[in-house]
UniProtKB/TrEMBL annotation:
Membrane topology: Multi-pass membrane protein
Naturally occurring in which organism (per UniProt): Globisporangium ultimum (strain ATCC 200006 / CBS 805.95 / DAOM BR144)
Record's protein name: ABC transporter family G domain-containing protein
Keyword Transport: yes
GO molecular function, one term: ABC-type transporter activity
Stretch forming the signal peptide: none
One Gene Ontology cellular component: membrane
SUPFAM superfamilies assigned to the protein according to its UniProt record, in alphabetical order: P-loop containing nucleoside triphosphate hydrolases
Length: 437
């Protein structure tokens, strides 16, 4: 899924890919920089800033991915031959884009917890299902035509998984979006929501076709699904040691001379099937000139980033300031450490001679070292924020330089005020107590 969504650096890694990837009639390398604006990728892990609320996370994603979209869509829908229809389409699209944040909240069932922080293992926030929905909503804004979701059922119960997959099915139906979801051991209710099934094992395609035809296909190979057995569990048993319990020699099709045992054998047989042939015929079918013209008219005007450099830097700066203000644990811990260590140093250097240069240099060195090492506590915060940056940068939320500039600027006023306050407290405790006779 990372390769199909353009998130995997194939050229800089040890991954070997056979064949080429095309989007409509466009080679993937030609639009690789702009590809995240058309294709979303929902990661397996929920990576967020825990102190931001669901609504704040959504608003930031909406600002980064949907800025200026009204003007671009209006230019695409402009049609001099059909002015009435074109005007109606522009009004409908504008209304939809303006109400898109509220619509996404309603669609994913997050309106009741939109003012709750997302949280993590150390901060109480929304539930695991709510966090997974927040991860999904973050990738729905903009001009997304395809959505890849990687093992979204991790850490969720069957009910939460069903709700999310059902919402994705409604989204695909309403907005004509292509959605591919990888799941591990889905429940029968979740499995029934899919239109097509892709069964992979060891890098081999064992089946790729309609969901309703999967049981009959493997039945022709001599494997029968018991009446009370889940179809998903039955399919997951193919190509493994568990397939022997489903094998019925008498039901095997005459086309298959030998029962497949490994994933490679299943893959070889599937390549000879009519289902695979129909898929190849659909891929080789020429697109109409009108379809390609409309597709290029829509995709060619979409830039690599929806926001300008300064708008992007402004929104990232606002978020960085909000994160800095809400880091109350660091501020309180820093204040306690200053007072505690100040009294400790003052007791060590109590009533010394201020004219002794070596002692005064030792005090100065200790104070400078303490204040410098005190900033190490920010390293875990920066490391945690790095994962969020990787996810959002690969999705073209903002430029790397925008985050660097915003992060540096957001810490300037706080650093000046904090250093001044720390020096004053340190002076009052250490120097005044030390020189007290």
């Amino acid at each position: 899924m990372k390769i199909l969504s353009g998130r995997s650096p194939v050229k800089s890694s040890n991954i070997k890919v056979d064949g080429d990837i095309f989007y409509n009639d466009t080679f993937c390398d030609l639009i690789r920089k702009r590809l995240p604006q058309f294709v979303s990728y929902v990661t397996q892990q929920d990576v967020h800033h825990p102190s931001l609320t669901v609504e704040e996370t959504m608003e930031f994603a909406y600002a980064c991915c949907s800025s200026g979209l009204n003007k671009r869509v209006a230019s695409v829908l402009k049609n001099d031959q059909l002015p009435v229809e074109s005007m109606a389409a522009r009004h409908t699209t504008t209304a939809l884009l303006n109400q898109l944040p509220a619509l996404v909240l309603e669609l994913l069932g997050l309106q009741h917890c939109k003012n709750t922080v997302i949280g993590d293992a150390m901060l109480r926030g929304v539930s695991g299902g709510g966090r997974r929905r927040a991860t999904t909503e973050e990738m729905l804004f903009g001009t997304k035509l395809a959505l890849f979701m990687d093992d979204i059922s991790t850490g969720l119960d069957s009910a939460a998984t069903y709700d999310i997959v059902n919402m994705m099915r409604s989204l695909a139906t309403s907005f004509d979006t292509t959605i591919a979801i990888s799941l591990l051991q889905p429940s029968p209710e979740v499995f029934a929501l899919f239109d097509d099934v892709l069964l992979l094992n060891g890098g081999h395609v064992m089946y790729h076709g309609p969901r309703d035809g999967a049981v009959n296909y493997f039945g022709d190979l001599g494997f029968i699904c018991p009446p009370l057995r889940d179809v998903a569990d039955f399919l997951l048993g193919m190509g493994t040691d568990e397939q022997s319990q489903y094998e019925v020699e008498a039901r095997r099709s005459s086309v298959v001379t030998e029962t497949p045992r490994t994933a490679a054998e299943f893959g070889s047989i599937f390549k000879l099937s009519s289902i695979h042939g129909d898929t190849l015929d659909a891929l080789d079918e020429l697109h109409s000139a009108e379809f390609l013209a409309n597709a290029h008219a829509f995709t060619d005007v979409i830039p690599e980033f929806h926001q300008s450099y300064w708008d992007s830097t402004y929104h990232v700066f606002r978020r960085e300031m909000l994160l800095l203000v809400r880091n109350s644990a660091f501020i309180k811990g820093r204040a306690f450490m200053i007072v505690h260590m100040g009294f400790l140093y003052s007791s060590i250097f109590y009533q010394i001679e201020p004219m002794k240069i070596q002692v005064m240099m030792g005090i100065t060195f200790s104070a400078t070292l303490f204040i410098s090492l005190g900033q190490i506590s920010q390293i875990p915060v920066l490391m945690a924020a790095r994962d969020v940056f990787y996810k959002q940068r690969r999705s073209n939320f903002y430029r790397t330089s925008s985050l660097v500039v915003s992060s540096a600027l957001s810490r300037v006023p706080v650093a000046i005020r904090r250093d001044r306050r720390e020096r004053c407290v340190w002076k009052l405790i250490v120097l005044d107590v030390r020189l007290f006779q």
